């Protein structure tokens, strides 16, 4: 027997949508996650009391726009249809609405209430917002971004940056648009880092050594930015993989319902699909 969970402040989940079992029984989850979390998610999987099947998707999904990202994620969710699975777990935040509209026909979908991945590294959206508000212009770095954030593979050609020419060198901009226009485009569109002045490396406690922190410090020095190392928090990630989905930090989307953005502190909500 498994207990039924509260439903995001708007009543209770429909009958049959359940969370962790009572009595210590084991469930089976499918985790679909951005590869940025590869080390953190793998650490949480081995600690989970449940069976977790894992699929990592490339970091480049963040760069192809909300519609393209949603389509790729929906394909991954659809591959779970008919599989033996108690719930699908998403290693994503709202991510510029990249998960809006996502649904499963046959499984509950569990999503952290987070605007983006940094919330998961901080362990709570409250802690992230507190730091964000007091340290504007901070560029965050983790082991995943250093290991996997630079090579989007085939997604590079589909990225918004590539389609708009924002990834062109100054010389390529001059050849295409002329020198005056190239200077303007470079200043206003292509220099995505111009508003940053600080690099914060988030140390999660699962790194093999200090290589990532040293690389982050070197990147900050190269750009002339201030540098800070922060202690991350694995709590949110581990609770998701352990099946402890408290209403405050997770949205449980019933089968046949879809993820929607909530324009309040909840960040996410669920509503029935139209079909």
Structure at a glance:
It contains ten helices and twelve strands. It is of the alpha/beta class and about 280 residues long.
Structure explained in plain terms:
By secondary structure, the chain is an alpha/beta fold. It is 33% helix and 22% strand. It has helices at 38-47, 66-78, 117-122, 125-134, 143-148, 160-164, 170-177, 179-190, 211-223, 235-242; strands spanning 2-4, 18-21, 28-34, 51-57, 87-91, 109-112, 138-141, 198-203, 226-231, 250-253, 257-261, 268-272. The radius of gyration is 20 Å and the shape is globular. 33% of the residues are buried. The model is unreliable at 1-23 and 152-165 (pLDDT under 50).
Core attributes:
275 residues; alpha/beta; Rossmann fold; three-stranded parallel sheet; globular
Helix-strand layout with pairing:
Blueprint: E1 2-4, E2 18-21, E3 28-34, H1 38-47, E4 51-57, H2 66-78, E5 87-91, E6 109-112, H3 117-122, H4 125-134, E7 138-141, H5 143-148, H6 160-164, H7 170-177, H8 179-190, E8 198-203, H9 211-223, E9 226-231, H10 235-242, E10 250-253, E11 257-261, E12 268-272
Parallel strand pairs: 3-4, 3-5, 5-6, 7-8, 8-9
Antiparallel strand pairs: 1-2, 6-10, 11-12
Helix pairs in contact: 1-10, 7-8
């Amino acid at each position: 027997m498994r207990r039924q969970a509260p439903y995001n402040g708007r009543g209770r989940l429909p009958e049959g949508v359940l969370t962790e079992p009572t009595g210590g029984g084991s469930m089976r989850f499918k985790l679909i996650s951005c590869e940025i979390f590869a080390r953190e998610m793998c650490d949480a999987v081995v600690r989970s009391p449940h069976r977790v099947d894992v699929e990592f998707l490339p970091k480049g999904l963040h760069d192809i726009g909300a519609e393209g990202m949603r389509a790729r994620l929906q394909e991954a969710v659809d591959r779970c249809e008919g599989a033996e699975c108690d719930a699908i777990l998403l290693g994503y935040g709202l991510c510029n609405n990249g998960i809006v509209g996502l649904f499963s026909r046959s499984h509950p979908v569990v999503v952290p209430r987070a605007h983006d991945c940094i919330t998961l590294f901080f362990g709570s959206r409250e802690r992230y917002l507190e730091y964000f508000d007091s340290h504007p212009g901070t560029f965050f770095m983790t082991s995943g971004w250093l290991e996997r954030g630079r090579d989007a593979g085939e997604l590079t050609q589909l990225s918004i940056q590539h389609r708009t020419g924002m990834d062109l060198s100054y010389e390529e901009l001059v050849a295409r648009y002329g020198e005056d226009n190239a200077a303007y485009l470079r200043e206003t569109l292509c220099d995505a880092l111009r508003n940053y002045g600080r690099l914060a490396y988030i140390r999660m406690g699962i790194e093999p050594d200090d290589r990532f922190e040293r690389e982050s410090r070197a990147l900050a020095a190269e750009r002339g930015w201030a540098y800070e190392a922060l202690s991350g928090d694995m709590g949110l990630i581990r609770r998701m993989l352990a099946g402890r989905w408290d209403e405050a930090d997770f949205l449980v989307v019933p089968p046949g319902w879809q993820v929607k953005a909530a324009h309040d502190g909840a960040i996410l909500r669920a509503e029935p699909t139209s079909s």
